[in-house]
Amino acid sequence: MARTIVITSGKGGVGKTTTAAAMAMGLAQRGHRTAVIDFDVGLRNLDLVMGCERRVVYDFANVINGEANLNQALIRDKRCENLFILPASQTRDKEALTLEGVGQVLEELGKTYEYIVCDSPAGIEHGALMAMYYADDALLVTNPEVSSVRDSDRMLGILSSKSRRALQGEEPIREFLLLTRYSPERVARGEMLGLEDVQEILALYMLGVIPESKSVLNASNAGNPVILDQESDAGIAYSDMVARYLGEERPMRFLDPERKGLFSRLFRG
Amino acid sequence: MSLTHDSPVDDRAPSAGSSGVGPAFELKAAAFTLPVIRLLRLDMDAVEAELTPKVQQAPGFFEHTPVVIELSALPSVEEDVGFPQLVGLLRGLGMIPVGVRGGGSAQHEAAKAMELAILADSVKPYQAARETEVKVDELPVTGQTDEPPVGIETGSHLIDRPVRSGQRVYAAGGDLTVLAPVNSGAELMADGNIHVYAPMRGRAMAGLHGDTNARIFCADLQAELVSIAGHYRVSDKIPATLKGRRIQVFLDHQVLRIEPL
């Protein structure tokens, strides 16, 4: 039985797609057969971040409408054979996703996959509800700033009332927090909320802290999920996140400001 | 219900005087939270059978309570709702049906014939977020969700999970006790007292039905708004010295007071 993980936030631009790509790639690299679905109809990006935009033939909406079967639409990742991408439709409107259609696709994927990662669009409208409705686990991607924290909080409320598990009175969705674009220097200067502040407000298990890093943008531009860049802080932090999700204990890293002494500058070269 | 958001002043100060030369009335817009009876199928006998015990559980809650009849969940917009029977039933149980929401034009005509108002159905985009909250307020005739319960329970109510932004919890006819944080953008309502034993960052409205003896107790006051029987105060008007402290809020001769415990 597959576990369906929704990557959500409420707010846009916090790193949902980057996180979905990293999560899916990380799980697949550890040998789990994983599918990642882009729910952002009309504003698809996951294919770019995964570097498969030139291989899209059919999409999620085609599958729901019966114009293509699932295997035709799924794109196998070139770097990892356990990873498959189901792109969103760029041309339809968001109503293309129906609860019934999404349910059927997830059920069919569930027969052969271990993990299904759902990349939710921003907002609390139709697309986001579709992405989270069938979730077993939810990863709340949050930036260390008040508006993002509040939107995540709002999303948690919706998860606990509008998801299938909530509506059918099943065991609630497992909720995790991921703090992205974290800059310890700015936290130290009081310009950003710190880890403890966010955790105090949201009261959730912290799955990881991803430091603000240029490598994220570079990786997205190149179509390589940043988790593949194990030279970068962000890549390492994403690996930790996947490990923690799978139950491993890992200490949090990259929480302290980098020392900007003359020597460290010289020797870090 | 007694809570209004219409007044720009903090506490409802006694009006200036009765010299009698000013205008006789003011026209204002006010938002009210009303119970909604959401019809799921057109079986008035079943409605009566299900509703009667609920009313008996909390007679005080339904006594002279305005209610809205929601039609949008009905399978057909054509069918005759049978308003005369429904209105008679609700009145018989002490409620005052004031309007309908949703439904088709034929149903609206029938509702108008019974002197029911037709309430706006569609929400403007900027109200959409608000709408999802209001929905939680509907009488849970069926389908209880996992959302912190908003039931019409006579007894008191205990919540031990965080109350998130956008969630509303209402303890009708009793006290509300919350053991977990109440976050900014969340709303607590109770006909009786409200107790919060964790950071209180949202809104708390006690004495929702006008009980001026209701109080609010917070272990860590960071609230956006506190209100008792409609007398309210927003965060801006709460002295900074009281924030983050153990406090109680009560009404003292129509004046809302916040004092450390």
UniProtKB/TrEMBL annotation, chain A:
One of the Pfam families matching this protein, by short name: CbiA
Entry binding sites for ATP: 11-18
Residues covered by the CobQ/CobB/MinD/ParA nucleotide binding domain: 5-226
Annotated transmembrane regions: none
Signal peptide region: none
Keywords of this entry: ATP-binding, Cell cycle, Cell division, Nucleotide-binding, Septation
GO molecular function, one term: ATP binding
GO biological process: division septum assembly; negative regulation of cell division
InterPro entries: CobQ/CobB/MinD/ParA_Nub-bd_dom, MinD, MinD_FleN, P-loop_NTPase, ParA/MinD_ATPase
Origin: domain of life: Bacteria
GO CC annotations on file: cytoplasmic side of plasma membrane; cytosol
Family, similarity comment: Belongs to the ParA family. MinD subfamily.
Subunit comment: Interacts with MinC and FtsZ.
General function of this protein: ATPase required for the correct placement of the division site. Cell division inhibitors MinC and MinD act in concert to form an inhibitor capable of blocking formation of the polar Z ring septums. Rapidly oscillates between the poles of the cell to destabilize FtsZ filaments that have formed before they mature into polar Z rings.
Protein name: Septum site-determining protein MinD
From TrEMBL, chain B:
Gene3D superfamilies in the record: 2.160.20.70, 3.30.70.260
Domain of life: Bacteria
Domain Septum formation inhibitor MinC C-terminal: 159-259
Pfam families, per database record: MinC_C (PF03775), MinC_N (PF05209)
GO biological process, one term: regulation of cell division
Domain Septum formation inhibitor MinC N-terminal: 25-97
InterPro entries to which the protein is assigned, alphabetical: CAP/MinC_C (IPR016098), MinC (IPR013033), MinC_C_sf (IPR036145), MinC_N (IPR007874), Septum_form_inhib_MinC_C (IPR005526)
UniProt keyword terms in alphabetical order: Cell cycle, Cell division, Septation
This protein's record includes keyword Cell division: yes
Classification via HAMAP family: MinC (MF_00267)
Similarity comment text for this entry: Belongs to the MinC family.
Function: Cell division inhibitor that blocks the formation of polar Z ring septums. Rapidly oscillates between the poles of the cell to destabilize FtsZ filaments that have formed before they mature into polar Z rings. Prevents FtsZ polymerization.
Assembly and binders: Interacts with MinD and FtsZ.
Name of this chain's protein: Probable septum site-determining protein MinC
Source species: Halochromatium salexigens
